[in-house]
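Hello support,

Our group uses your service weekly, and this is the first time we've seen a run hang past the timeout. The protein is GNAT family N-acetyltransferase. I'm not sure whether the cause is the sequence or the server load. Input pasted verbatim:
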Amino acid sequence: MERTQAQDIRLAPWSEGDFELLVRHNSAAMTAHLGGPETHEKLLDRHQRYLGLDDGRRGRMFRIAAGPEGASAGIVGFWETTHRGEEVWEAGWGVVPEFQGHGIAGTAVRLVVAEARGAALHRHLHAFPSVDNPASNGVCRTAGFTLLGEEDMEYPKGHWMRCNDWRLDLTGPPGPGQE
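Update from on-call engineer: The timeout came from a worker crash unrelated to the input. Re-ran successfully.
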């Protein structure tokens, strides 16, 4: 059986050396569904926020490591947010272009689901991909999230987008394909 890249995926805790991956992730193509690229200053702030999540109590960010060499394939993580009056985890991810189309995002999100479940802090994990982003909506579906509907969200500040609200209950047993 041929081995796919998605079988050799692991999460590496976000580190100081991962800033260049964040810069690569900030391209027009990678941020097309997120309001476009951010300034260098905003990237530096984001990098510091990611580093500040290393205790796991407010979430965790990871570099997606692919293959035996651990090549940087993308970013995935979860963090605390308030949604409709409830404290929840929110998940987000991005896979750089040369690694897209190999199931890497789905594998990485399933690994993040396991991390959020292990944190045992919030009942729900949400993801809010743009309704115009079929790839990320497909990741939500295959990772076991339930589609609750569409809503308008402001992200980044000053930019409104129509997104899908996907939710996964972390208190039940893991679903098919979840760790």
